[in-house]
Design a protein that fits this description.
Layout: E1 5-7, E2 15-16, E3 42-44, E4 52-53, H1 54-61, E5 83-85, H2 86-98, H3 103-196
Antiparallel strand pairs: 1-5, 2-3, 3-4
């Protein structure tokens, strides 16, 4: 007794896919070439110009499609026969699953990526906060420097005004002091001359 197989009415094994470039045809579902694995034949069961593996078409139809009588792309009714051994199909699926990371590894990888993304986001936020703080410090220092400059300019202006005021009164004061000094000197000379003169005869 042969292995159990799956057949779809009204049959699904159309013509082999022609190769215009001479290269091996590829499956439009998995994008792999025809192989010797169970259900590895590529053919056109509809009016589409691209072929499909027997196993890929079977898995696609068994994935819960409501319309199993015609192609969803070209809407043509399936043609030909499609027979795939269920046991071989399950064995191929098991081999494919064993070659891929399991769910736990995928979850761990996703969690690691999420953690890395969170760390990068945190570093980015810290960098933005540091840049904002640096900008605030720069603005504060600029305001302080501007205020100090205004104070210094004000002090210089006051010093200039004080100097101008003193220089304006300096000539009259100097003249008055010199005049007083000369007057005092002349009076002193007169007194000396008076005391040095001999007394007149009586």
């Amino acid at each position: 007794m042969g292995e159990p197989s799956f057949s779809l009415p009204p049959s699904l094994a159309g013509s082999r896919v022609p190769s215009e470039s001479g290269e091996a045809p590829t499956c439009r579902i998995c994008w792999n070439q025809e192989d010797s694995q169970p259900g590895g034949r590529i053919h056109c069961p509809c009016c589409c110009t691209t072929g499909v593996h027997d196993r890929c078409l079977l898995q696609w139809l068994l994935s819960g499609r409501e319309n199993q009588e015609s192609c969803e792309l070209c809407t043509a009714v399936w043609e030909g026969d499609l027979t795939v051994a269920i046991r071989d199909l399950l064995a191929a699926a098991a081999a494919l699953k064993s070659a891929q990371p399991d769910t736990a590894e995928l979850v761990a990888a996703v969690a690691a990526l999420q953690q890395r993304e969170a760390s990068l986001q945190r570093l980015l936020q810290e960098a933005e906060e540091a840049e904002a703080a640096r900008q605030r410090d720069f603005e504060r220092m600029r305001r302080v420097a501007a205020a100090d400059r205004e104070v210094m300019l004000g002090q210089l202006e006051q010093a200039k005004q004080w100097r101008r005021s003193n220089l304006r009164w300096l000539p009259p004061v100097a003249i008055a002091v010199a005049g007083a000094f000369l007057a005092g000197l002349s009076l002193g000379e007169q007194r000396v001359a008076t005391h040095a003169r001999p007394p007149s005869p009586q």
